[in-house]
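Quick one: co-fold with adenosine-5'-triphosphate.
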Amino acid sequence: MNNRIKEGSSMICAYGRSDGSSSIMSFDGSETRQSTDDNKQAHQSLVEWLNETLPYLKLPWEASEEDLRACLMDGTVFCNLLNQLSPGSLKMGGSFELASLNIERFLTAMDEMALPRFEASDLQQGDMVPVLQSLKALKASFSDNGYDKNTLCAMRRWSWPEDHSNLKGLDSNFNDGLQLKEGSEINISHAKILDLLKSNNLQNTSTRSLFDMLDKLLDESVQKMNVDVSHAFASILRGIVEVVEQRISNQAENLKNQNILFRVREEKYRSRIKVLETLASGTTDEKELVSEEQDVLQLKKERERRDADISKLKQELELVKETHEEQFLNLESNAQIAKIELEKQLKDSELRVVESTEKAKELENLWETKSKRWEKKEQTYKSFIYHQTEALQELRATSMSLKQEVLKARENYYQDLNYYGLKLRGVVHAAKNYQVVVEENRKLYNEVQELKGNIRVYCRIRPFLEGQNKSETSIEYTGENGELVVANPLMQGKDTHRFFKFNKVFGPASTQEEVFLDTRPLIRSILDGYNVCIFAYGQTGSGKTYTMSGPSINSEEDWGVNYRALNDLFHLTQSSQNTVMYEVGVQMVEIYNEQVRDLLSDDVPDASMHCVRSTEDVLELMDIGLMNRAVGATALNAKSSRSHSVLSVHVRGVDVKTDSILRGSLHLVDLAGSERVDRSEVTGDRLREAQHINKSLSALGDVIFALAHKNPHVPYRNSKLTQVLQNSLGGQAKTLMFVQINPDEGSYAETVSTLKFAERVSGVELGAARSYKEGRDVRQLMEQVSNLKDMIAKKDEDLQKFQNVNGIQKRGLSNLRFESPSPRRHSLGGASPNASRRKQGSGLLRTTSDSARHNESSSKFSETDGSISSRAMELSLFPETSNPPEMSEQSEQSEKANAGPSKSLKHTPRPDQTRPSRLSISTSSSSKALTSSKRPINGFSSSVKPLSRKR
Ligand SMILES: Nc1ncnc2c1ncn2[C@@H]1O[C@H](COP(=O)(O)OP(=O)(O)OP(=O)(O)O)[C@@H](O)[C@H]1O
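Sure, here it is.
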C-alpha cells in the first residue's frame, strides 16, 4: 500500500484544488506546500467559485482568509451554498437563526456527503485552512465530475470520494474478488467501495459514512454468505478499521496537542496574572504621598470653591425658579385669558360653522335647483341644437339647390346681358340722336326767341347772409330749365305756392363765373353790331350790385357782369384786330331822384364818354364811378344804393377790307331797390328817394306792359330810367333782366311781386334784334343828309334869332321864366339839393355859377332828346351816326304820345338854344351832327375826357 497515510503524522488533510492537485498540511501549522503560487491560485479559484455560485456575495478577487471568515461566520453562506448546489438539500430556518446551528447543519451535510469537515472554532478564531479545505472539497465534488446536481443530490449519501489513491493498498485482494464476482448484484457495492478505495478519498469520507457503508456490507455479506466475497470484505473492513483507528488516534493526538496548547496558554496567563498582581500591589514612594496630600488639599479647596459656586448657583437657581414661577403664573393667567378667548372664538367659529353649514345647505339646495335648471336647459339646448342641426341640414340642402338656381340664373343673366347689351347699343345710338335733336330743338327755340326778340329773364337767388336762419326760406323748388316755386311758410293752403318760369334760375350756390357764362353770348353780339341791355331788378339787398359789379374789384373771381363783360370785349377786339378795328367808349351815369348825373366827370355838362383801351382803364373808370355813386343808408341795407346806375359801353368797328362800319352798345343797369316805401321806414329825403325810385320802376313796368300788349304808344318819357332804356327795351335790342330774389321768408311778399314783374317782362316781345352795319354808299348818303341837316339847322337858327329879336319886347316877362331852370331841364346833373350835398361830400362840389352852367348844359341835353339820353350819348361819341329810322319815328311818336302825363319831360325851347350842342346832334340839331360826322373815325368828340376821379 504505497499511498497509505503515514503513521505518526499528526493530522493530515487534503487541501483540494480545483485542478485535482493537493497539498499536505500538518495540523500544528507546519506547511509542506508544493508551491505558494498554487495555493494563491487555489484560493482565488475558490473565491471565484463562491462568487459564481452565490453572486450576491460579491467577494473581492483577492479576498483574504479573514474576509472569508467574516463572510462565512454566521453559517448562512454555507447553507445557501449547499442549497444552491443541491436545491432542497437543507431546510433553512428564519433569517435570525443561530450561526452555530447553520454551521452544524452544513457540517452534518458535509459528513453525509463524506466530504471533509472543519470545526466551528476554526471558523470563529482558529485557522481557516480546514474551512477552506472543506469548501474546496465541496467545490471539487460539484464541479469536476460533471455530475448533474439532482443526481448528486440523490447520490450524496452514497457518493464516495473519487480519489482513493491513499487506499490503493487495500485493493489487491479486493480487485481479485471483484473480478471473480463480476456480474453478481453484490459486485456493484464492491465496485463502488473499490472505486472509493482507489480514489484515495477514504480519508475524506466521514466516519459515520464509513460505518454506514460497513453496516451495509455486513448486512449484504450476512445475506449472501459468500466465501469469495468475505476476503474482499475483510480487506475492506481492514482498510476501514485502519482508517477509523487512524482517525481516532489522530483525534486523540489532536486532543493531546490541544491539551498541551491549553496548558501552555494557561501558564502564560498565570504568569501574566502574577505580573499584574505584583504591579497592583507594588510599594509607593513617600514623595508620592506628599504630592498626593497636596493634591488632596487642592482638591478640597476646589471642592470648597465648587461648593460655593454650587450655593451661588443654587441661589441663582432659586431666583430663576422664582422668576420662572412668576412667568409661569403670568403665562398661566395669560393662558387662562387666551383659553377664554379661544373658547369664545371656538364658540364663534362653532356658530360660524353652524351658519356655514346652513349656508352650505342653502347653497346645496340652490345648487340642486340650479343644476336641475341647468339640466332642463341642457335638455332644451340639446333639443334646440338637434333642431338647429336639422334646420342646418335643410338649409344646406336648400343652399345647394339655391346655388344651382343661382348658377342657372347667372347663365340666364349673362344671356340676358348679352341680349340687352345689343339692345342697349341701339338705345345709345338712339339717345345720341335724341341729344342731337334736343340740342337742335333748344337752338331752334332760342332762335325763335331771338327772332321774337323776347326779353330774357334770368332769376338769381341770393344765399342766406350770416346770422340769417337758413330753414326759414321761401324758395321751395328751383328747376334746371328755369322753373321756380316759391311758398309762404307762414301760410298754409293751395295758394301759398307760386310757380314761375324764366329762361334760367341761378340758385344760391351759383358763382359769378357761372352767371356770366350764360350772359357772354349776348355780350359778344355787341361786336356784331347789336345793342344789348342788361339790367338787374329786385328789392334792396337782393344782390343786384353783387351780380352787376361784384363784391369787390380786387379779386377776379368776385367780378360781376360789368367787369367780366368789358374784359371779354377787350380780349375779343384785340384778337380780331387784323380784320376789324374797334373803338370802345364808356359812359357811366346814375339816375338819382329823377336826375341823370355823370359819374365819371363833373366838369362836362353832358354824360362824358371815355375812351378805354384795356381792362385796367375800365377798372379805374368804374372805381371812380362807384365811388361817386349815391349811396344812402336805409333800415334794410346799410349800403343801399338809392339810385339807378347805368354803365354804357359803345363799340364802333371798321372793317379793314370793306370799310364798312358796325356799331354796338351795351347798357348795364343796376336798378335801385324795388321795395315798397313803407317797408323802408324812411322819411324826409330818404322818403323822397324811395318815391322817385318807385315812380321810375312803375314807369318801367308801364313801358313793359305797353310793349307786352303791343300798344301803339309806349310811355318811355314817364321817367328818366325808361328814357335811358328806351333803345334797349324797344329798339330791337337784345335785353336781359336779372331778377334778384331774397330767399328769407320775411321777404316773401316782395319776392312774389318782383317775380310777377319779371314774369311780365319775360313775356315782352321786342321784335327781332338788328345789327347796325353801314356800307360805304350808305355812309356817303348819310353824310349828304347830315350836311343838308346842318344847312337846315343853320337856317333854323337864323330864323330863331330873327324871331327872338322881333318878339323880345312882347315876351319881356317870359324871359324871367327862362332864367329860372325848370326841374325837368336839370335832369342831367341838375343842381338838386342832393347833388349839392354829394358835391360837398365827394369832391364833386360845384360853385353856384358852375351849377348854373351845368344846369344849362343838362337842360340842353334834355331839350335835344327827351326820349333817350343813351342814344344821345352814343352819338356824342360817334357823331357821324344818325338815328336809325325806326328809332326817330318812335321818338317822334313818343313825344307826341307823351303830351299828357309826361309833359314835365318835354322840351320847352329856350332862346339860347340856338347854340350848337353835342346833345342836340341826336335829334333836332342834325346840322351839328353832320358837321361832326366829318371828323376822322378814330377821333372821339370833345366830350371824351381823360380819366379823373371826383375827389
Ligand atoms: N350771390 C351772392 N353771394 C354772396 N353774397 C351775396 C350774393 N348776392 C348778394 N350778396 C350779398 O348781399 C348783400 C346785399 O347785396 P347787394 O348790395 O348786391 O344788394 P342790392 O340788391 O344791390 O341792394 P341795393 O338795392 O340796396 O343796392 C351784400 O352784402 C352782398 O355781398
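If it helps, The pocket of adenosine-5'-triphosphate is lined by residues 462-463, 465, 538, 540-546, 551, 637, 640-641, 672-673, 740 (CB under 6 Å).
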